[in-house]
Design brief:
- The protein is an alpha/beta fold.
- The chain is built from 25 helices and 12 strands.
- It has a 6-stranded mixed beta sheet with strand order 8-9-10-5-11-12, with helices on both faces.
- The two termini are 69 Å apart.
Length: 645
């Protein structure tokens, strides 16, 4: 089975040995994040060398104490040896503090860089990605995996370097002390190799399972502990079911943690047994040499101390390759997200919109929510196929998509600057999809959309966002103050501007009546406010933004009559002198529209532009088509006769 994307391009398994094979591409990429801290990294390596060198001195002091100071009753030598035994740990501790500072600095800044890169990339992903993703799993990538990546560099990397230096220097000194005992010491090293490699592979797989299980648990927490999730759970009385589901995932995480701990513990028990055998062999051999008169007691004591510094690092070195590859799992998972293609991105020469008049045109636009796959949400680096082309060619892309999967089919219409356009039609007709395409939350599968003659694909997303204001049915508010939520539209707005926008949205008097006024915290997703209040806050936010083009979902059907009237008055005020595209639910909006677009099953079945002698409403009513049927069904005959005529 071939894997051409995702982490498989960085790490693969040898079919015969089941051993991970790191590629230079992964290592170069990891180094790219560490490069800004290369001087600190060099300093870290220097501290490793110094600490390792100092750690080799105490066994030599023991040897000197036993072989020279005590037999010769040399008090001066004894005093210096005692001072050395005190001084070396103190110096090591001071250098260790420097090492910890450097390690923490590199690690924490590396976390910050990775997290920033991930956050920036995720915000560049298209809306399709987020409709297919679980937020909790994305949070896991931003937290658990980034921390794991930091550990790979400041933990595993440091340990590998330290172990190599320790083994090399320890063996050098041991050979200088007594080469025969050194041969005995390393004779058992092959026994370390096989179990260490085997356990390394097991630990790597457990590590990956642990990250996956944690991601699933985080996803469940995010879905059920946000305000909407909690409300849904309570309304359907499913608390026990959700608790049971979370308990199962939590137990799974716990079990994998226990397995990880036990595998590690058994491994260290085995290493301890092998080390004990090695120590016994060395002491036996050393004792024999002492009895033969070819070795001193101090040398044996020194060897015993060096053995503790030899076997642990040796076992780690024998598994260093697998251990380092295992530690790269977190980097792989982070890079999986960073490698996801951006479905919607600016061209290098993107146009910055200036002095927008608000002319909009759709040219043979067709769209499918399924054509782009999951937008990369599968975290496998699957490219998002936009299909079609900028010039409106439809045949190649449409041939691949069944009609039942098309949200829009061959839509064309023109809007002049300042016109009010009403989108009408039954539920599921494609009205909301049109409002998503205009601010470029999605790109058309085929065809193209123009604003003031500019293809939206040629326009910078930032300038497009500044040009378009959107009020949807469900308006999101941050868990912060009213002032902060309003300033999101215009961070530099003055208090006078904020109040003016709120007055225009018929919400200022309500805010002014609150104990904390504009500093009132609205709660999670604004749930401390009523539906009508949230809607008017959202309208005030758009008024403060002052866009040239408005996209509105006139959702007032679920509100009380007073709130509805306040919102309608605010909407009429904000739509003045702006191009407005409105999903119309009220007859008054439809009657006032300059253009009416009638949608049905993703197709534009009727459209009309107001003329001097007849409104768009009257023109469509006279045709006796779908619009007329909708009109009579929804509004009956209880209307002014002039409207029916």
């Amino acid at each position: 089975m071939m894997h051409n994307s995702g982490w498989w391009k960085y790490i693969r398994y040898d079919e015969d040995r089941d051993q991970p094979q790191l590629s230079m591409a992964l290592l170069r990429r990891v180094w790219g994040y560490a490069r800004p801290y290369q001087y600190k990294t060099i300093g870290l390596l220097v501290t490793i060398l110094v600490i390792t060198g100092l750690s080799l001195i105490p066994p030599l002091l023991y040897r000197d104490l036993i072989d020279k100071a005590i037999p010769n009753r040399d008090m001066t030598r004894l005093n210096w040896l005692a001072l050395g035994m005190i001084g070396i740990p103190i110096i090591n501790a001071i250098i260790g503090l420097a090492q910890r500072y450097l390690s923490a600095t590199i690690g924490e800044h590396l976390i910050s860089d990775l997290r920033n890169a991930l956050f920036n990339h995720l915000h560049g992903m298209g809306l399709r990605f987020f409709t297919h993703s679980k937020t909790g799993e994305l949070m896991s990538r931003l937290n658990n995996d980034v921390v794991g990546a930091q550990s790979a560099l400041t933990g595993t990397f440091v340990n590998v370097i330290s172990n190599v230096v320790t083994v090399a220097s320890t063996l050098t000194i041991m050979v200088m002390l007594e080469w025969r005992l050194t041969l005995l010491s390393i004779a058992i090293v092959p026994i370390f190799v096989w179990p260490t490699r085997r356990v390394g592979r097991i630990l790597r797989e457990i590590r990956r399972q642990s990250l996956n299980l944690n991601a699933k648990m985080n996803a469940l927490m995010e879905e059920t502990l946000n305000i909407n999730g909690v409300l849904l759970v309570k309304l359907f009385g499913r608390q026990a079911d959700e608790v049971k589901k979370f308990s199962e995932r939590s137990v799974g995480v716990a079990n994998i943690g226990v397995r990880l701990a036990m595998v590690g513990r058994w491994f260290f028990i085995f290493l301890g047994l092998i080390s004990a055998i090695g120590t016994a062999v060395v002491f036996w051999g050393g004792g024999y040499l002492v009895l033969q008169g070819s070795c001193t007691i101090g040398t044996i004591v020194a060897f015993g101390a060096y053995l503790t510094q030899l076997y642990g690092p040796l076992s780690s070195i024998s598994n260093a390759y697998v251990e380092f590859a295992t530690s790269m799992v977190s980097f792989e998972r982070v890079f999986e997200v960073l490698d996801l293609p951006l479905e919607i991105e600016d061209k290098p020469d993107a146009v910055e919109l200036q002095d927008v008049s608000g002319a909009v045109s759709f040219h043979n636009v067709s769209f499918s929510y399924t054509e782009g796959g999951d937008g990369g949400a599968g975290l496998l680096g699957v490219s998002a196929d936009r299909g079609g082309s900028d010039n409106g060619s439809t045949a190649p892309a449409l041939a691949r998509i069944p009609d039942c999967q098309m949200a829009l089919q061959n839509i064309s219409f023109d809007i002049k600057p300042g016109e009010l356009v009403a989108l009408v039609g039954p539920s599921g007709a494609g009205k909301t999809t049109i409002t998503y395409l205009l601010p470029r939350l999605y790109d058309p599968t085929v065809g193209y959309i123009c604003l003031d003659g500019h293809n939206l694909r040629d326009v910078s997303q930032k300038s497009l966002a500044q040009t378009i204001g959107m009020v949807t049915q469900e308006n999101y508010l941050f868990h912060d103050t009213l002032r902060t939520n309003l300033l999101y539209a215009k961070p530099d707005a003055t208090q006078t501007e904020i109040e003016a926008a709120c007055r225009a949205a018929n919400i200022h008097h309500f805010i002014d009546s609150l104990p904390d006024g504009y500093d009132t915290v609205v709660g999670e997703r604004g749930y401390r406010l009523s539906g009508g209040e949230k809607q008017r806050i959202a309208i005030a936010r758009v008024i403060l933004k002052d866009p040239r083009l408005l996209v509105l979902d006139e959702a007032t059907s679920s509100l009380d009559s007073q709130s509805e009237a306040l919102i309608q008055e605010a909407l009429e005020r904000i739509m003045q002198d702006r191009t407005s595209l409105v999903i119309a639910h009220r007859l008054s909006t439809i009657l006032a529209a300059d253009v009416i677009l009638v949608m049905d099953h993703g197709q534009l079945v009727e459209q009309a532009h107001s003329a001097k002698n007849a409104s768009a409403h009257e023109i469509l009513l006279a045709r006796g088509g779908l619009y007329a049927n909708l009109y009579h069904t929804q509004f009956g005959m209880g209307v002014d006769a002039r409207i029916v005529a």
